[in-house]
Write a structure and sequence with these properties.
Number of domains: 1
Helix content: 25-40%
Number of helices: 10
Order of helices and strands: HEEHEEEHEHHHHEHEHEEEHE
Strand content: 5-15%
Distance between the termini: 28 Å
Number of strands: 12
Radius of gyration: 19 Å
Shape: globular
CATH superfamily: Glycosidases
């Protein structure tokens, strides 16, 4: 997971009116949430609730084995070897999980696809189109629209509502994790006046560059604590909510790209304090109607 500089997220935000003094919020990510056991879910949600976290971002990208030190129940990606190869296991798992998360005051943000799948050729989008043709092939675009429609039309067995109608449980949808759009799409968004309204971030466990946290030597826990508090405060000062990458239901195993913090593990108290502080910070945008 790579992150932009914190300086860049400050630009263009201070001109946004804050007359209503809306409150910000903190959130987290867990790309393998659909594989958690009931006990792991409880540990994670208890911890997030204690930190005042309001949203958890989850993926539809298949995972197996022990992931980030978490032994999970394996699940396949939503789509496999072709556009017609659907496996709704991940959706069904998240149906159950979102109800439990709701009981802890947490909604889900659904990431419909991930750039990682294109890079790793882990589904037909990656195998057929890869990172080169996905954004330009009319067939790929049409098939991806079908994927979005499939997710939005999925019906929750408890409520009888589609996910598109499930705002009590789902905070938002995003088309892609780490979209890596070609520059023309970025320029188009800028010209349309799009603003940065949320920030995903993490603090590297090592002394590697924070946006390239792969390797290096571990830093003292106190140094990382200070960075967590300082950088979270910078984002709060910009008036936008943040999503930490990522909180685990177990101790951090310190694998590659190591931004993680485990519940009740080293650096958890610092992250928890920062998350609670974010809920008291003013936001440039009012997300209250979409939170529990």
């Amino acid at each position: 997971m790579k992150f932009p500089s914190l300086k860049s997220l400050m630009l263009g935000l201070f001109s946004v009116a804050t007359a209503n003094a809306a409150k910000s919020f903190s959130a987290s990510n867990l790309y393998y949430a659909a594989g958690l056991t009931d006990g792991q879910q409880t540990t994670l949600l208890n911890g997030l609730q204690s930190a005042g976290v309001k949203v958890l971002r989850v993926w539809l990208y298949g995972q197996s084995g022990a992931t980030k030190g978490t032994p999970i129940n394996d699940f396949e990606s939503l789509q496999g070897t072709s556009s017609d190869d659907w496996d709704d296991t991940v959706l069904n798992r998240l149906d159950t999980f979102m109800v439990k998360a709701h009981d802890y005051g947490i909604n889900l943000l659904i990431s419909i696809h991930s750039y990682n799948a294109l890079e790793k050729n882990s589904d037909f989008y990656g195998k057929w189109y890869g990172t080169g043709d996905f954004y330009t092939s009319s067939k790929a675009i049409s098939q991806f629209k079908d994927r979005i429609a499939h997710v939005l039309a999925h019906k929750h067995p408890k409520t009888g509502k589609t996910w598109a109608q499930s705002s009590d449980y789902i905070f938002a949808f995003e088309a892609r994790n780490e979209a890596m759009h070609p520059q023309p799409f970025v320029d188009k968004a800028k010209k349309a006046g799009k603003k940065l309204i949320m920030q995903e971030w993490g603090v590297c466990y090592t002394d590697a560059e924070n946006n390239n946290c792969n390797g290096g030597s571990s830093v003292p826990a106190s140094t990382r604590d200070d960075n967590i508090k300082k950088w979270a405060a910078n984002i709060d000062a910009a008036g936008i909510p943040w999503f930490y990458w990522q909180v685990l239901p177990n101790a951090d195993p310190h694998q590659g790209w190591d931004y993680e913090v485990g519940i009740s593990d080293a650096n958890w108290d610092a992250l928890k304090a920062a998350a609670l502080a974010s809920g008291k910070a003013e936001s440039a945008f009012d997300f209250g109607p979409y939170l529990l």
